[in-house]
């Protein structure tokens, strides 16, 4: 999504194909009310519970920190004082352990990590984003890459490009996309 934003800002044509019905990949934040409602628990305030990436470290990830600041997202320091409860399995009681502070300190994004995805999505041109469009094949011939992707309507669409950026692990790409020529085996195990 960040690559798409950079292309958008430079006026370079692009198409973002997303296999899922939402952007963000493994980043997802659920409203606390949704999580608690499943257990018939009432909660008055609006917060979100991160199901994927949660923390970031500005000192170790300065470009991410700069993007978060540029997008105007509010952040807060991860609470690290006191003891922690660790639940190792659903069949064992949680255990209390002495907490620890990380160095450098970690931060969180107000409203959950999905706030980053929503801020990026708001800056992208809607007609350049296709949801529910998993890429099924990729053929490279000369300077042209031809992609076949499922369409929201249920069929398949063909797209041609000069360059393709795959934002999935090579192992997943090798398992779900038919490459012509074949993806080198050295890339398939990463």
Describe this structure in words.
The protein is of the alpha+beta class. It has two domains: 2-126, FAD/NAD(P)-binding domain (3-Layer(bba) Sandwich), CATH 3.50.50.60; 133-188, FAD/NAD(P)-binding domain (3-Layer(bba) Sandwich), CATH 3.50.50. It has six helices and twelve strands. It has helices spanning 2-9, 32-37, 62-70, 114-122, 170-176, 185-188; strands at 16-17, 29-31, 48-50, 75-77, 84-86, 95-97, 107-109, 129-130, 135-141, 144-150, 156-161, 178-180. The strands form five sheets. It has a four-stranded mixed sheet with strand order 11-10-9-12, covered by helices on one side. A two-stranded parallel ribbon has the order 1-8. It is globular and about 60 Å long.
Morphology call: globular
Mean pLDDT across residues:
87
User: What is the name of the CATH architecture of the largest domain?
Assistant: 3-Layer(bba) Sandwich
From N to C, what is the helix and strand string? HEEHEHEEEEHEEEEHEH
Integer-rounded radius of gyration: 20 Å
| Biggest sheet details | 4 strands, mixed
- Name the poorly predicted regions: none
Structural class: alpha+beta
- Number-wise, the strands total 12
CATH T-level fold name of the largest domain: FAD/NAD(P)-binding domain
User: What is the count of DSSP helices, taking H or I runs of 4+ residues?
Assistant: 6
* Assigned CATH superfamily of the largest domain: FAD/NAD(P)-binding domain
CATH top level class name of the largest domain:
Alpha Beta
Report the β-strand fraction as a percent range. 15-25%
Distance between the termini: 21 Å
Number of domains: 2
């Amino acid at each position: 999504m960040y690559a798409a934003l950079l292309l958008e800002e430079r006026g370079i044509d692009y198409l973002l194909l997303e296999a899922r019905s939402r952007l963000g990949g493994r980043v997802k934040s659920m409203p606390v009310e949704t999580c608690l409602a499943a257990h018939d628990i009432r909660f008055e305030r609006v917060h979100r519970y991160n199901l994927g990436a949660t923390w970031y470290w500005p000192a170790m990830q300065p470009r991410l920190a700069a993007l978060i600041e540029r997008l105007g997202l509010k952040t807060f320091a991860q609470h690290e004082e006191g003891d922690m409860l660790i639940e190792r399995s659903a069949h064992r009681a949680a255990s209390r352990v002495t907490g620890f502070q990380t160095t450098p300190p970690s931060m969180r994004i107000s409203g959950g990590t999905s706030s980053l995805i929503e801020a990026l999505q708001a800056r992208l041109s809607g007609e350049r984003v296709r949801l529910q469009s998993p890429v099924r094949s990729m053929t490279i011939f000369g300077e042209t890459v031809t992609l076949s992707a499922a369409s929201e309507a249920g069929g398949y669409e063909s797209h041609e490009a000069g360059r393709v950026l795959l934002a999935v692990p090579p192992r997943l790409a090798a398992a779900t996309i038919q490459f012509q020529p074949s993806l080198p085996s050295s890339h398939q195990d990463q």
